[in-house]
C-alpha cells in the first residue's frame, strides 16, 4: 500500500470501526452482566432550551437510488432536532433504534442491551418552543461514513439547546444500517469488499452524492416540499438567511462542498474530515472551519484544506481522537476494547470543546465578524486556531 493511501485511510479507519469487515467474521458477543450494563448518562445540553426530535423521510425524484435501483427514487431519513418546551410528561427519545444497536453489538462484541442503558436528553416529539423574531437559524448535519445520526446526540442536542434547528441527514446506504422511521431497514451498501485498499477513488467519486443530499434537503426545507407534519410546521419557523452546514469526517467534507454549491449556506464546519483530493490541499470557496483531532494533526494539518476564494480556519483539538467528535467514546468506552486510540482528552471535554467551537463559529459568522475576529473568538486553552 502506498504512503498516500495509508495517509488517506486514516480519515476512514476510525469511521469503519463499526462496519463488519467481510471475510473476518463477527465478534463474539460477551454475556452481559450488571457491571457491563451500567447506566450511561450523556453530557447535558448547555443552552436554555429543551431539545426535541422528530423524524421523517423525503424522496428526491430527480435522483434514482444507484446502489439499489429497485428502491426507485433516492430516499433520505431526516432527523429534525428543534428547540422545545420543557415537559416532564414527554418521554425521552431513544438513544438508538434496535436494528442499529443490534448491528453495533454484533460487530463490536458488546452487550445487546447496551443502548437501553444510554440516557440522553432529547425529548420524543415535544411541543416546539416559540421561535424568535425572524425564526431559528438552521444547521444542516452530515454524519461520518458508516455512522448513523444516533451517534451524535450530544453535539446535535447542544446546538439546538442554544437556539437552532438542526436538520440531520442520514445518507441512504451510508450508515450501517439506515433505519427509516417506519422501521424499514436499508443496508449499508457503498462497497462490497473493504480489504486493504478501501477504494480512495470510489470514495472521492461518491462524495458529491452526499453533497447533493444536503442541497436537496435544504431545498425541501425552503420550499416545504414533501415534508410531513409536525416537521413541516416546525421548519416554517426557520431563518434561512444564514444556513450553516457541518459534519463529521466524510460528512464534514460533504458539508464544505455543499456550502460552496449553495449561496444560502454561509459557511461550513468540517470535523476531522479528509478532502479526498488525492493530492494537494483543496482550496475552499465558502467560509470554513476545519477542526482536526490531535491524533490526526501530523497527517491532516496543512495538507487537506486551505483558503481559496474564501477563508479556511484550521483548528487542532489537542489530545482528541477522531471518535471524540461523536458520542462513541463517552458511550462505548464502557464496553468495547476495539475503539482504537482514545487520546489524552476526556471524551466529555472533547465534545464540550467541539460544541463550543461549532456554536461560536456559526454565531460569529452570522454576525459578520472578520476573519481575525473569528479566529480570536475560537481561541481555547486546548485548541490552536489559525488561517490556513
Write a concise synopsis of the structure shown.
With 388 residues, this protein is an alpha/beta fold.
Tell me what the structure shows.
It is a single chain. The chain has 388 residues and is of the alpha/beta class. The protein has one domain (37-387): 3-Layer(aba) Sandwich (Rossmann fold), CATH 3.40.50.1820. 28% of the residues lie in helices and 23% in strands. The strands form four sheets. It has a ten-stranded mixed sheet with strand order 5-2-3-7-6-10-11-13-15-16, sandwiched between helices. Helix 3 (153-161) packs across helix 9 (347-366) and helix 4 crosses helix 6 (250-261). 50% of the residues are buried. Mean pLDDT is 84; it is low at 1-36 and 192-196.
Physical arrangement of strands within the biggest beta sheet: 5-2-3-7-6-10-11-13-15-16
Task: Summarize the amount of helix as a percent range.
Answer: 25-40%
State mean pLDDT (0 to 100 scale): 84
State the CATH architecture: 3-Layer(aba) Sandwich
CATH homologous superfamily (4th level) name: Alpha/Beta hydrolase fold, catalytic domain
- The total beta strand count reads 16
Total of helices? 10
CATH topology: Rossmann fold
Uncertain segments are 1-36, 192-196
Structural class: alpha/beta
Name some characteristics of this structure.
Rossmann fold, about 400 residues, ten-stranded mixed sheet, alpha/beta, globular, 10 helices, two-stranded parallel sheet
SSE blueprint:
Elements: H1 3-13, E1 40-41, E2 50-64, E3 73-84, H2 98-108, E4 118-119, E5 123-124, E6 136-142, H3 153-161, E7 165-170, E8 178-179, E9 185-186, H4 200-223, H5 231-235, E10 238-248, H6 250-261, E11 265-271, E12 282-284, E13 288-293, H7 297-300, E14 305-307, E15 312-317, H8 328-332, H9 347-366, H10 371-377, E16 383-387
Parallel strand pairs: 1-4, 2-5, 6-7, 6-10, 10-11, 11-13, 12-14, 13-15
Antiparallel strand pairs: 2-3, 3-7, 8-9, 15-16
Helix pairs in contact: 3-9, 4-6
